Amino acid sequence: MSKERVSMIVFSGEMDKLLPVGILASGAVAMGHEVRIFLTFWGLMAFKKDAFFQMPVSPAFAGMVGDLAGMLKERHIPSVIEQLRIAKELGDVEIVACGMTMDLFGLKLDDLEDIVDKVAGVGEFIETAKEGHTTLFI
Amino acid sequence: MADDSAIRIDARGSFCPGPMMELIRAIKGASVGQVVVVLSNDSGSKRDIPLWSQKAGHEFLGVEEHGDYDEISVRKSH
Q1: Active-site option among B6, B9, B16, B63
Q2: Is the Cβ of B63 closer than 8 Å to some Cβ of chain A?
Q3: pLDDT digit string (tens) for B33-63?
Q4: Interchain contact, B56 vs A32, CB within 8 Å
Q5: How many structural domains does chain B have?
Q6: Among the CATH numbers 3.40.50.970, 3.40.1260.10, 3.40.50.150, 3.40.30.10, which is that of A5-137?
Q7: Chain A within 8 Å of B25 (Cβ-Cβ)?
Q8: DSSP readout, chain B?
């Protein structure tokens, strides 16, 4: 039987695509599910220290929202980093940085937000995701 | 419903799932039997919080609607 675990592979670095990562993780934790997040490529770039609000908005939608970062701040919507911090406080959430992306861009765990737990390879993450009921690619 | 020991959280202005997350946090810190009341004006919380209460095994006491916001109450059961 599969575990109550939601896994997410986060590849995208656009702020609008990252927002659901925090919201889905919060909802999953609230309902008692484990959450495992694998950050790769542009998704990992958004988790460099203080990078989140610098990330772009998807071009197709940029015109609709204007200044998304400003809108989020004005409405007190926490950044994905803050949402995940709260989710980690309330439940079992592990955030893993893709080793290959780290090597490619010369990053160290210290360069990332402190909510990132460790660096791992894709093989390990696939094994982790295999045990869950849902795996999303964002 | 007046209960002096109830914890009240004003989560108005916070978007889904913010009010539920604040409620869960408060329940964790509350003592067994204590009621947590969250004020919310997002549309997801009054549906999500009863579900959460059922799943987490706490007593959902109901939603009081006040026009532009809801007052949602849960009693910590364990």
Answers
A1: B16
A2: no
A3: 999 999 999 988 998 999 999 999 999 999 9
A4: yes
A5: 1
A6: 3.40.1260.10
A7: yes
A8: ---TT-EEEE-TTPPTTHHHHHHHHHHHHSPTT-EEEEEE--SSHHHHHHHHHHHHT-EEEEEEE-SS-EEEEEE---
Q: What ipTM was predicted for this assembly?
A: 0.75
Q: Does A74 touch chain B (CB under 8 A)?
A: no
Q: What CATH number is given to the structural domain containing B63? A: 3.30.110.40
Q: In tens digits, what is the pLDDT along chain A, a chain of 138 residues?
A: 567 999 999 999 999 999 999 999 999 999 999 999 999 999 999 999 999 999 999 988 888 888 888 988 888 888 999 999 999 999 999 999 999 999 999 999 999 999 999 999 999 999 999 999 999 999
Query: Is residue B1 domain-resident?
Result: no
Listed residue (A34, A30, A21, A48) closest to A111, CA to CA: A48
Segment B5-17 mean pLDDT: 92
Test B17 with A23 for CB contact under 8 angstroms: yes
Q: Is A63 exposed, middle or buried (0-12, 13-18, 19+ CB in 10 A)?
A: exposed
What's the confidence (pLDDT) of residue A1?
Answer: 52
**Residue of A23, A80, A93 for testing the chain B interface, max B β-carbons within 10 Å:** A23
